[in-house]
Amino acid sequence: MEALEKFGNICYVMMMPFKRQALVEFENIDSADRCLTYGTKEAVYIAGQQAFFNYSTSKRITRPTNADDPNSGNKVLLLSIQNPLYPITTDVLYTVCNPIGNVQRIVIFKRNGIQAMVEFESIQNAQRAKAALNGADIYAGCCTLKIEYARPSRLNVIRNDNDSWDYTKPFLVRRERGKTRQRQAILGEHPASYGDNSYGSHCPLLPLPTNTRFKRSSHDLPEVVAYPLLQSSSYMGHASSSVAMVSGLHPERMNCNRIFNLLCLYGNIEKVKFMKSVPGTALVEMGDEYAVDRAITHLNNIKVFSKRLNVCVSKQQAVIPSQVFELEDGSSSYKDFSMTRNNRFTSAGQASKNIIQPPSCVLHFYNVPPPVTEEELQRLCSEHGVPGFIKFKVFDAKPSSKTISGLLEFDSKTDAVEVLTVLNHYQIRIPNGSNPYTLKLCFSTSSHL
């Protein structure tokens, strides 16, 4: 609003975080015309990113609530968590939301990224939580909350666990992963030190921003929300192991390198091993359990080479290089990636540059030598038997830059996933060049070009 209010009075704004878009309704059409005209001639930056403008097909933004009426609205909020570097559980969201207003129920779902619905005791509590938390980071520089009112007026929770919880019914069974098909154990249940609450105590929300976007009157909310301090070992992720099991792999087109190309976007890869006893299945040892959780969140159930992947936590705590055999493409069924320079989370500084994104139809490419053209990239796709892109964009580079970067848009998310799986880390050689350039690919935050 701060960037656009110079064009005229703004009536309403609707955020669409997963599309990286927003609808802005001005008080009159002249203001919208001024905004669009200015945007076509001069660059407009919002939060450091250049924004592009076009007319919407909607004449008016539908209001889910009347924000001016304290008795209107919904007591259920929809939370979209952007850039979720760390696992989000009911414990985390309860700790974030409950100090502002009594939370009754939470449901977390993972369809396009991570979202959650939080039901408060009253509409007023929900309004205060939305005003206080919208735009705040749960952890520094990540897990950003985008909040709007949800459509349901009440949540239905059937069990209390890490993805759903009814705080009015503490007696609901907390079902552990795999409990229903558990074999008889020699020593029975887990020892007391590994109780149900494997996530430890609650984690703190970072201090709320103090800029003008979050100003509110004193009767709306206390000045300081007291969150409990983070203990050094209090937060454990969803995954109980740093090993992921990936099944549904194409027997002829998938190998250790291609599994690395895809999963390295979500954490360091230590080792990959295909299982001889279970065709189309591989064990992937990652840097930590957080990486496994991110891989499960974003890659489970996606399609690669016409086969749907299943990504879950393995019971193994490490990948052992046993029963090594030859895959159908002639490569080894086992590979150690612990020393590769293509891992992207080897330091805190390097990890902070990665934007954790779900698969999309737009790929961001970088570290490409300037002589490479759009036609050469298309030919590269064709030579490797993967779909070509439909749109191509190169970012302006500094005169001293030795590489170029840009975006590739594909017909579908599946096409983009297959291209990334095959061509990520491809070695590009140029005439008279001493060393090859390693093509780097990742999913873009843009939904289209």
What would you note in describing this structure?
By secondary structure, the protein is α+β, with helices and mostly antiparallel strands. It is 17% helix and 24% strand. The protein has a 6-stranded antiparallel β-sheet with strand order 8-9-5-7-6-10, covered by helices on one side. A hairpin with a 2-residue loop joins β8 (137-139) and β9 (142-149). Mean pLDDT is 81; it is low at 175-237.
What key attributes describe this structure?
449 residues, alpha+beta, 5-stranded antiparallel sheet, 8 helices, 23 strands
Compile the SSE list and pairings:
Blueprint: E1 10-16, E2 21-26, H1 29-41, E3 44-46, E4 49-51, E5 76-82, H2 90-97, E6 103-109, E7 114-120, H3 123-133, E8 137-139, E9 142-149, E10 164-166, E11 243-247, H4 256-263, E12 269-274, E13 281-286, H5 289-299, E14 303-304, E15 307-308, E16 310-313, E17 334-336, H6 348-352, E18 362-368, H7 374-383, E19 391-394, E20 404-409, H8 413-423, E21 427-428, E22 437-438, E23 440-443
Helix pairs in contact: 4-8
Number of DSSP strand runs:
23
Give average pLDDT, whole number.
81
What is the overall shape? flat
Number of helices: 8
Strand content: 15-25%
Provide the low-confidence segments as ranges: 175-237
Overall radius of gyration = 24 Å
Q: Bin the helical content.
A: 10-25%
Sheet having the most strands:
6 strands, antiparallel
Quickly give the structural class.
alpha+beta
N- to C-terminal separation? Answer: 24 Å
Strand order in the largest sheet? 8-9-5-7-6-10
